[in-house]
Amino acid sequence: MDINHHGLTLLIGGKLYLAPLSGEISMSPVTNECIGIWAIDFADQFPKASVIGTDIAPIQTTWVPPNLEFQIDDSTKEWTFREASLDYVHARWLVGAIQDWTALFKEAYKSLKPGGYLESYEPASRIESDDGTVTNSTALCQWGKIFIEGGRKLGRPFTVYEDGIQGKAMEEAGFADIEERNFKTPVGQWPRDASDREVGVYMQLAFEQDVEGTVLFMATTLGWTRNEVSVFLAHFWKEIRSRKIHAFFRQKVVWGRKPTSL
Predict the structure, then answer these.
(1) CA torsion, ordered 189, 207, 143, 104, to nearest 10 deg
(2) Where are the domains of the chain?
(3) How far apart, in Å, are the Cα atoms of 100 and each of 91, 180, 244?
(4) pLDDT tens for each residue of 140-186
(5) Number of alpha carbons in the 13 Å side-chain half-sphere of residue 231
(6) Average pLDDT value over all residues in the chain
(7) Where would you tag: which of 63, 98, 198, 243 has the fewest CB atoms within 10 A of its CB?
(8) What global pTM score does this model have?
(9) What are the UniProt keywords, alphabetically (predicted)?
(10) 2-257: which CATH topology?
(11) Three-state DSSP class for 239?
């Protein structure tokens, strides 16, 4: 996730957020994510803010800025923050972890001060190409099918990007001035542009770090054998390292503001 964070930061121009935050962030921004490095970077950028990072597992480093606190919490439950106490809520890569996105964003809405922002980052499940090098017969193409079908079986959608769930859920939760940005995220060393290639290298590394455990869980949920998973992974690793396959996946950043008057 640290590698993925770096790749995503490069993708959005070296920024940590895209919402139009003022320089007066001062009270408890919260990050609901399975990564601590974003919260550390944000706390460094806003030294006067009280930053709270939440996760369901104690996997974060203990070396943190003095204005950052990590808490063990489940963002799918009722939030424990005081009503209207937060200036900003940042959530990223929760795909597969959330059953009811509207309920999640309603908790964010309740916890935000009027005028505060919620910002959500989520990837598409499908890996594709513009030139047909990711074909239906490739493991890269099959990747998305595994997670989409597995997510349906588990009741946790992996089509957050594809179905526009972020924007719809924000609107249903009551947010206004909703905006979004879409990004193509290259995977691998194939891009000619140096900036795109750097993103692609980091995203390839991110995939390679955790692909076996991630695929094994989902594929066995769908009834695959361990041998079938091993064969799939062998093809996946070969394809993701090939400069002849121009793979990418899409990501969407959506932010919305809690109205100052109702």
Answers:
(1) -120
(2) 2-257
(3) 14, 20, 39
(4) 999 999 999 999 999 999 999 999 999 999 999 999 999 999 999 99
(5) 7
(6) 90
(7) 63
(8) 0.92
(9) Methyltransferase, Transferase
(10) Rossmann fold (3.40.50)
(11) helix
Residue with tokens 């935000």: 112
Exposed/middle/buried for residue 193 (C-beta within 10 Å: 0-12, 13-18, 19+):
exposed
Using alpha carbons, list the distances in angstroms from residue 105 to 6, 24, 168, 169, 175. 26, 23, 10, 7, 9
CA distance 238 to 101: 35
Whole-number Å distance between alpha carbons of 71 and 57: 9
| Matching residue, tokens 């910002």 | 119
pLDDT in tens, 183-235: 999 999 999 999 999 999 999 999 988 788 889 889 988 999 999 999 999 99
The residue assigned the tokens 């803010």 is 49
Place of tokens 């800025």: 65
Comparing CA positions, the residue from 171, 175, 197 lying closest to residue 186 is: 197
Alpha helix locations (H) across 163-193?
165-173
> Residue 251's closest CA among 206, 202, 185, 169?
185
Of the candidates 88, 79, 75, 8, the residue with the CA atom closest to the CA atom of residue 45: 88
Say which residue the tokens 């090939």 belong to.
242
d(CA 185, CA 221): 27
Q: Three-state DSSP class for 150?
A: helix
Residue type, 217: F
Quick check: 4 and 36 in contact, CB under 8 A?
no
